[in-house]
């Protein structure tokens, strides 16, 4: 990259489903564009530690469960069906790298300059790129900046839950996608889509799964009747639910997970134990170190970047998209549709095109748990 001009029409900060289609579309439109990603791989949460690896595990675990239990009534016997977790994880990793590598290929094709580092807005039209491998920051000058920094797992409100994915006892979704052995018992905090998907994966592989939820229903935001039916189906499949409990703490007690919780309606404190406890209480926008305060980009509740209906922030020339802005945490909402009168805006144009590319994922897979709902 050194020796080349570091002046761009657009700099995109974040290479997830918000950022990478935006950068590609800008390249297709003939803009000089750069994308800065600090993960070391393109594709963001979705491709690396979200939609794709979770669906890979859901698919593999479904095949295993079918072969182990589901074929008998059809007269097909498959004795001694075994799960090799190491191979399963390798298959998942290969699925991920195939896709993330594909985006790098598209970046090359459409002449998007890819910087591995952390982007910090230092002034309107100026982004400091702090390289991953260390060393001095490079300044990228640009007409347009697109914030696509995504989201990270939320904490459990009012509780002491310290996630340590390396220790593999108290984990978030990233850690739960990467367990090295099949736990005997798993507790999932939160009956949202991510928690239920992860719970389904491990239950199919033989884990006893208990979901602890504050509310009296699962999958908030989804139609009541569907949620009710969905819970019945999951229960029939063997998943257990503790509804109406407020988690107070989840701790690693010498390699075992201990969860303390209070019934929301009053009553005695209860304790559960498991090999692994998954904290899955949603996600919050990620804007740490972005430099929003350097230029006065307005952040709203929970650090969400505020935008108008054209993806524009309050600072001219700075746009935002994806999980970092309002709307559902979901790849498809990362790329909302806008009316034709806004097509002239670079941020909008790229975003809309992205939606066409990504739209199928959410509809097909956001409630991927193999049931008849
Ligand atoms: C387990 C799981 C399963 C999911 N399943 C689905 C599903 O089936 N369907 C669906 O539609 N959605 C799903 N989602 C949600 C989906 O992953 C997100 O909605 C989507 O990834 C949001 O895209 P984004 O580009 O806004 O953010 P992200 O994908 O989070 O990407 C943002 C990127 O920006 C980078 N970044 C942040 N700050 C900086 C900075 N300052 N400089 C440089 N880089 C930076 C981050 O490293 C990250 O790679 C799932 C999420 C999880 C966790």
Structure explained in plain terms:
It is a single chain. The protein is α/β, with parallel strands linked by helices and 373 residues long. The chain has two domains: 6-153 and 284-320, 3-Layer(bba) Sandwich (FAD/NAD(P)-binding domain), CATH 3.50.50; 160-281, FAD/NAD(P)-binding domain. 31% of the residues lie in helices and 25% in strands. Strands 1-2-3-4-5 form a five-stranded mixed beta barrel. It has a five-stranded parallel beta sheet with strand order 8-15-9-10-11. Helix 1 packs across helix 9 (346-365), helix 3 packs antiparallel against helix 4 (85-109) and helix 3 runs parallel beside helix 6. It is globular. Residues 1-5 and 335-366 have low confidence and may be disordered. Bound molecules: flavin-adenine dinucleotide. The site of flavin-adenine dinucleotide has 40 residues, from strand 2, helix 2, helix 3, strand 3 and helix 9.
Ordered list of secondary-structure elements with their pairings:
Blueprint: E1 7-13, H1 19-28, E2 33-37, H2 44-49, H3 51-70, H4 85-109, E3 112-123, E4 126-131, E5 138-147, E6 151-153, E7 160-161, E8 170-171, H5 173-176, E9 185-189, H6 193-204, E10 208-213, H7 224-237, E11 240-243, E12 245-253, E13 256-263, E14 270-274, E15 276-279, E16 283-285, H8 292-295, E17 318-320, H9 346-365
Parallel strand pairs: 1-2, 1-5, 2-3, 5-17, 7-12, 8-15, 9-10, 9-15, 10-11
Antiparallel strand pairs: 3-4, 4-5, 6-16, 12-13, 13-14
Helix pairs in contact: 1-9, 3-4, 3-6
This protein binds flavin-adenine dinucleotide (FAD).
């Amino acid at each position: 990259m050194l020796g080349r001009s570091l002046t761009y029409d657009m700099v995109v900060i974040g290479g997830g489903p918000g950022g990478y289609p935006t950068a590609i579309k800008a390249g297709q439109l003939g803009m000089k564009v750069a994308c800065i990603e600090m993960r070391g791989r393109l594709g963001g949460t979705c491709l690396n530690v979200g939609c794709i690896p979770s669906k890979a595990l859901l698919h593999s675990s479904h095949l295993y469960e079918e072969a182990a239990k589901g074929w008998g009534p059809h007269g097909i016997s498959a004795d001694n069906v075994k799960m090799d977790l190491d191979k399963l994880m390798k298959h998942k990793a290969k699925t991920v790298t195939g896709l993330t590598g594909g985006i790098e290929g598209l970046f090359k094709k459409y002449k998007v300059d890819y910087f591995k580092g952390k982007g910090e807005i230092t002034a309107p039209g100026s982004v400091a790129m702090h390289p991953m491998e260390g060393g001095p920051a490079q300044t990228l000058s640009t007409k347009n900046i697109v914030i696509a920094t995504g989201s990270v797992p939320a904490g459990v409100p009012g509780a002491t839950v310290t996630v340590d994915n390396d220790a593999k006892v108290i984990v978030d979704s990233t850690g739960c996608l990467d367990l090295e052995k099949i736990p005997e018992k798993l507790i999932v905090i939160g009956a949202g889509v991510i928690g239920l998907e992860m719970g389904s994966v491990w239950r199919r592989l033989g884990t006893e799964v208990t979901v602890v939820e504050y509310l009296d229903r699962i999958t908030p935001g989804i139609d009541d009747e569907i949620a009710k039916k969905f819970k019945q189906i999951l229960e029939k499949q063997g998943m257990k639910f503790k509804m109406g409990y407020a988690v107070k703490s989840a701790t690693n007690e010498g390699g075992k997970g201990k969860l303390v919780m209070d019934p929301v309606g009053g009553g005695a404190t209860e304790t559960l134990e498991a090999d692994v406890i998954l904290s899955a209480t949603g996600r919050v926008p990620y804007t740490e170190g972005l430099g929003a305060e350097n230029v006065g980009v307005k952040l709203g509740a929970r650090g969400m970047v505020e935008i108008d209906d054209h993806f524009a922030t309050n600072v001219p020339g700075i746009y935002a998209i994806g999980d970092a802005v309002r709307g559902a945490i979901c790849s498809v909402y990362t790329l909302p549709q806008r009316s034709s009168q806004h097509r002239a805006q670079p941020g909008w144009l790229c975003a809309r095109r992205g939606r066409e590319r990504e739209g199928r994922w959410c509809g097909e897979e956001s409630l991927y748990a193999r049931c008849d709902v």
